[in-house]
């Protein structure tokens, strides 16, 4: 294994020296042209006149003028449903091999998103690029001899008609290259397990058999797994079990909220590398160490567009108004929140993935995820984004020396007046009224609209603290423990009432 590791390291260094990339803008123009060319004879391509768009002087402009925005429900009802019925050439030539099941945030109804062979290849190619980017980090050569723990959904994909279905992490893991399987843990037998608790228990029992150098997975679930391993072996930290652990690759969820609690499980710092793998594709990855931002994958089967994230462009259900303007990569501005749209080799077209992003470096096409279109609290005009919420909570962690890895919030009415009710996941005992006052003041300072609303229509802030495990059990309650699940950060009143009933049962009230 040591020899293979040194070969891989040499190949990565050589590739980094030889590969030259086009500018992100040029790459995006080429990707769009290739997408349209490949799909012009599909039902979608014929309906929207892809052949005619390809003849335009400005293909990007013609594309944006001709094709409407689609959210999942529209894409499913109008197009993807026909593919599921067995029809060929609907949104992409032929039929997809897989459908990725995703609820995005916790929910009982899963989405079914097509995953073509071209998308599998695109995900694999981007994964190789990410591995190649490791040469930019200060990681010793012997790291490449170690094993990688990839904590995701079951690789036991279900047969549904002629398609295989599972979460994208399970689909990706079932397609890992043969040469990588010796490095991959927990291995195929454990990866096939459907039951999350059984899988983690088995990992804990066998943990000392492996020499883990890297972890990969959603932060909340990786943290729970590490705690279980530490507890099972009566260790002080995870480095007592895996002394060569040096890298953690997070995915799809910002790591910062979990950083404080995660670091307490370590004996020493490790390199944290952010990635952005969604059910719809591998969208971005961290390319260099001196930033926490991620580089958009601009040359590999995904075309991006960006809609300014403004309340007037967002419908109540989180979808986009069709008159909202979209800009290309060549037109974006730094530090501006955008709703992300993608068109892909899986037959998604001007598709609202549901995330908001901001550019931190336009020339390098580097971004950070700032929130979700559905996680935007604008009751009575507070215009409170998840990004602003996260910033305020990090301030609370510092002010009170506590950890708040999980939270949710809703606008509620008490005697006809609006309040923001926060549930904070923390293991620390703290006066809820004290932190509510501090949180309110922090948001006033960070958000002018919130400050203005608090002086008029928003009457106050309530805080309830619960153990972070309650949030994880809520996910299990919604049949989504582990995998790609993302906790709802903002709830409507109906969902919030269900959440509060669940919490009362959990804490025995």
Descriptive labels:
509 residues, Rossmann fold, 11-stranded mixed sheet, 36% helix, disordered N terminus, GH3_C, GH3
How would you sum up this structure, described in words?
The chain has 509 residues and is α/β, with parallel strands linked by helices. It has two domains: 1-373, ANL, N-terminal domain (Rossmann fold, 3-Layer(aba) Sandwich); 376-507. 36% of the residues lie in helices and 22% in strands. It contains 17 helices and 20 strands. The protein has helices spanning 2-18, 24-39, 43-47, 50-54, 59-66, 72-84, 117-133, 168-173, 188-191, 196-206, 219-232, 256-263, 386-400, 432-446, 448-454, 469-477, 493-507; strands at 98-102, 111-115, 147-150, 158-160, 163-166, 184-185, 212-216, 247-251, 271-278, 281-285, 294-296, 302-308, 337-344, 351-361, 366-372, 376-377, 384-385, 406-414, 417-425, 458-466. The strands form four sheets. It has an eleven-stranded mixed β-sheet. Strands 2-1-5-4 form a four-stranded mixed β-sheet. Strands 18-19-20 form a three-stranded mixed β-sheet. Helix 10 crosses helix 11 (219-232) and helix 13 packs across helix 14 (432-446).
